[in-house]
Here is the input.
Amino acid sequence: MKRKKIGIMTTGGDCSGLNTVIHRVIRGASIRGWRVIGILDGTDGLCGTPRTIELTEEVLPIENARLSGSFLHNGHAGALNFETAIERNKVAQFNKQLRKSLAELKLDALILVGGNGSTSLAWANREIYQDVQFICIPKTIDMDMPLTDRTIGFDTAVQQLTSFCDQLMLTARSHHRWFVVQSMGRDCGNLALNAGVAIGASAILIPEIKFNVDDLIAHIKSAPTDYGIIMVSEGITLRGHSGKPADMISRKLTAAGIVNRTAFPEHTQRAGDTIATDRILATRFADCALNAIENGETYVMTALECGDVKTVSLADFVAAGDSTHDPKIPGLCTANAYIEPDDPLLSVARDMGIYIGNYK
Ligand code: F6P
Here is the structure.
C-alpha cells in the first residue's frame, strides 16, 4: 500500500500548544508509517515554490514540544494570505497558487492548525483543498471559536495572565493601590473572565456585558481591600472615549480618587511553557485528526464537546458562529463565539463579589 504523505501548517496568531500538536502529529503519523511535511509560515509557504520541511522526531524532539510559538512559523506580516488577498483583489491568483503548490507536494491530507479567521477563510476558499483530505485543529488564546469547548493555547494563556496578575497583586498590596490589567482576547471576554476569576479580581470588564463606570467606582470604593486587580478585556469600549481600554478605565478611577496603575501583559499571554491541560488537548486533537484522515474524512475540524473529542464539519462550524463582516474586506466572514449569558462562570464571579457590569 502507498505510504501516506500528510502536511501540517500553523496559521494566524501563535499560542502555546502548537509545537505539542505538531509533535503529536509526527509521533502518531510515524506509528502509522506516514510521512509528515511541515509547511513553513502557513499559507505563505505555499505561495511560490512550496517551502517545507520533512518532519521527524529528530527535527522536533519531545523536549521541545512544550515550548510556545510555532516551530513551523505562522507567516510574515504583509504577506499574501486569505485576508490580504481579499484586500488586494488577488483571491483568484492566491487560490490558484495554493492549489498548484498543494498539487506539487502531492499530499494526501493537510492539517491546518488555526483560529476562527483561518478556519472560516479556509472553508470559504475550500476549492483549494479539494484534492486533499482537509482537517482543521482549533487554536487560539481568545477562545472565540464555535462548536468547541476549548481551543489549544487558551488554558496556557489563562495561566500566563494569572501568573502576571499574581505578581502585581503583591506590589499592589504594598502600595495600597489598584492595577488595571488589560487582557487580550479581541472581542471575546473568555480570557479576561477566566483569569479574572482565577486571581480573584475585584472587577472584570468584558465586551459581552455592558458596564457602568460609576458602579465600578462605587464597587472599588466599598471593596474589603484597598488594593487589587481590575481586569479589562481589550475588546471593551467606553462611549465618548478612545485609546487603550485600560487607560480609559484608569483615568476614570484616578479622577474618582482611586490610586491605580495600568499593566499590559500583551504577548506574554501567547507565550510560556504549554501547561498540562493544553498538552493533553493538543495530543487528543492530533490523535483525532489522524484518525479522521484514516477514516477518509475531509473538511472537518476537531472539537471538544462535553469532555469528548470528535470531528465537526467545517460547514457546521461556520454556520454555528456569529458571523462578523469586516466592512474593509468585502466577502470576509468569520465565525465567532462569545461568552453566552448563561456561562456559569459569570454567576460564580458575581456571587464572589466581582463586579462584572450589568450582569444580574
Ligand atoms: O487572536 C490572538 C490575539 O493575540 C488577540 O488576542 C490579539 O488581539 C491579537 O491576536 C494580537 O495580534 P498581534 O500579534 O498581531 O498584535
